[in-house]
Amino acid sequence: MPATKDRTSRTSRTNRSPAASRPFTLWREVLTAYAAPALMAGTAGVVTGQQDLAVAACTSIAGTSAVVAFLVGSWLRHGGQPRRWTTTTPRVALTAALVITAAGAAALLGWFTAQWLPAHSPIPATPWLERLRIDLPVSAALATTIVTLRWRSTTTSTTTTTTASRA
Q1: Which of 10, 95, 110, 153 could form a disulfide with 136 if both were Cys (CB 3.0 to 4.6 A apart)?
Q2: Pair 26, 70: CB distance under 8 Å
Q3: What confidence tens digit (pLDDT) does each residue in 125-155 have?
């Protein structure tokens, strides 16, 4: 009898999604958005001997990820009341729309910084400026995807729980 009870409680714990059991907390998402790419790209830079990648990991790559995670997460939360269309639009469509928007804006910023800024200011063109053309949109796309999917999984479960408790 105790084995059955243990197996049942273990099954109910494993069926729950880890994302659904934890609420969407913006500061935690931003911290993760900074730390994950900084550790991964920084480790890759150290292992492969690419000093510029190791430096970019903690600056342009992780910094962009954290800023985008904050902006997208804040926009999605919308003061605690999500916009109706963000909760009713299919998850893939919402994610794709936000990724295209964020990556496009980051690509424009990367182009502006790498191309236009050295041509119109005393800032010299350097290799790290050229990295921004790739670092910014890739970081923005990854951070937007992760934050949107995490947010959507928590709002879906919250909406389902609220609806079920009202019935």
Answers
A1: 110
A2: yes
A3: 888 888 999 999 999 999 999 999 999 988 8
